[in-house]
Amino acid sequence: MVKVLAILYKGGKAAEEEQKLLGTVENSLGIADWLKQNGHEFVVTDSKEGPDSDFQKHIVDAEILITTPFHPGYLTEEVMNKAKNLKLCVTAGVGSDHIDLNAANKRNITVAEVSGSNVVSVAEHVVMSILVLVRNFVPAHEQIVADDWNVAEIARNAYDLEDKVVGTVGCGRIGYRVLERLQGFNCKELLWFDYTDLPEDKKKPEFKRVDKLEDMLARCDVVTINCPLHEKTKGLFNKEILSKMKPGSWLVNTARGAICVRADVKDALASGHLRGYAGDVWDVQPAPKDHSWRHAFNPLGGGNGMVPHYSGTTLDAQIRYANGTKDIIDRYFSGKDQDPANLIVINGDYASKAYGEREKKASGQKPAGP
Ligand code: NAD
């Protein structure tokens, strides 16, 4: 008998009415019966903060932990110290930065995520967010629900995406798909910056690699961030890096909130240096009511395309990451090898190159890439 602990978000009425909301406490990734029929204990909760949370209570003897980036159970080294039985952490989705990966390595805990499960969902959201900002959609829509009509006030800050330069920071599964989807918009240039090269069969003459981040930022009208959060990307978009962006450019971040410095983004927007900032990821989730990004605007009162963290949790994505989570756990129970694409850390080392450039230790690292 194995104890499995899942930290998911509460879906309430929505989850009762829509059972395809699999990532919720109520629908428990659709694996509750399967686990129980096989004699395992399954604890599912949304209570994740502080020493009295269910998370901290049950992590003490759980062998498998399931978390999701949408309602992250932060598995810090301190919490890990209490987790004497923990062997496997499964991220139901993509992005395992809420787990201290270096601490997991020290303790030989395997971390796996359902790679690729929601990359199309996020790439579509990025393209939508770019359009929402560039075309000044949100203030236009707000006029309508406020029974107002003032074309000039909207049009004074609305542009076409055609002929603009767009660049992605990180050109893995999501970044690459964003560029692919932008091909139909006749952008002036589609650029990418990543320390990992694209595989030969994915290279396209219209996707241009830029070797230095600052050089790419200086050329871009729109920047989209699509790299994981790790030691080298935490706070990467600070005042200094933001100042390298073109004045009046737009920034979309669906990767992780903490890649951008909260106050610096707000200031860049308020000064007009950034014309807009959009995304669904926050440096703390759920975002507190007074989070400054909720009310960060450009000097014309627009440029805010923020939403709760949901780009990667469409109903289509939820089926994929729920099935993927079950597969990872099934393989663990039956002693089968995991799909290498899903492994982040295993046997005390990084199995993925996506979480920062680092010296390879024992295990072979799978190259990152689309
Ligand atoms: P991926 O592993 O396929 O690609 C990540 C790429 O980022 C890799 O090519 C890696 O080399 C590159 N990278 C890492 N550090 C970099 C740096 N400092 N500068 C430039 N490039 C760097 O991952 P993916 O599937 O494309 O997902 C990327 C990230 O998007 C995830 O780690 C997660 O944080 C985020 N994500 C968000 C959602 C959401 O719902 N908002 C959903 C899925 C993933």
Q: Which key terms come to mind for this protein?
A:
alpha/beta; D-isomer_DH_CS1; seven-stranded mixed beta sheet; EC 1.17.1.9; Rossmann fold; single chain; 370 residues; binds nicotinamide-adenine-dinucleotide; 2 domains; seven-stranded parallel beta sheet; oxidoreductase; oxidoreductase activity, acting on the CH-OH group of donors, NAD or NADP as acceptor
Q: How far is it from the N-terminal to the C-terminal residue, by CA?
A: 37 Å
| Continuous helix count | 13
Strand order of the largest sheet: 2-1-3-4-5-13-14
Helix content: 25-40%
- From the alpha-carbon coordinates, what is the Rg to the nearest angstrom? 21 Å
Shape: globular
Please report the first level of CATH classification, the CATH class of the largest domain: Alpha Beta
Largest sheet: 7 strands, mixed
Under the CATH scheme, the architecture of the largest domain is 3-Layer(aba) Sandwich
Low-confidence stretches: none
Taken together, the total number of domains comes to 2
Series of H and E elements: EHHEHEHEHEHHHEHEEHEHEHEEHEE
What is the fourth-level CATH superfamily of the largest domain?
NAD(P)-binding Rossmann-like Domain
